[in-house]
Design a protein that fits this description.
Layout lengths: L2 H46 L17 H36 L1
């Protein structure tokens, strides 16, 4: 496998990991805000004397689970580290090949 392919694969993998990290952090933010909103709504219902069993309108979009988003963030962190090591190794091999030829 040519060294350029290894380097490109490492860069592609790193970019995918960066996108996954961005998605996971956005999901964590949405989940945190969703939990805060639920707590505020519950407090508002309690102040108004409504029971917690009353029907509440469903949210427009499904809020991601915080635990799943945190796990996804950690997985993407490991992916980014692995691809960074691939890029570093390809760079070292390329440098060694250049030193040998010079």
């Amino acid at each position: 496998m040519p060294i350029g392919d290894v380097l490109n694969n490492g860069i592609e993998g790193y970019n995918r990991a960066a996108q996954g990290i961005a998605q996971a952090t956005a999901d964590i933010n949405r989940a945190t805000v969703g939990q805060q909103n639920e707590a505020e709504q519950a407090a508002g219902r309690q102040l108004q004397g409504a029971s917690t069993d009353e029907a509440v309108t469903a949210p427009v979009s499904q809020v991601p689970k915080l635990e799943e988003s945190l796990v996804a963030l950690k997985v993407e962190e490991f992916n980014a580290k692995a691809n960074t090591q691939t890029i570093r190794t390809a760079d070292e091999v390329l440098g060694t090949l250049i030193d040998i030829k010079v």
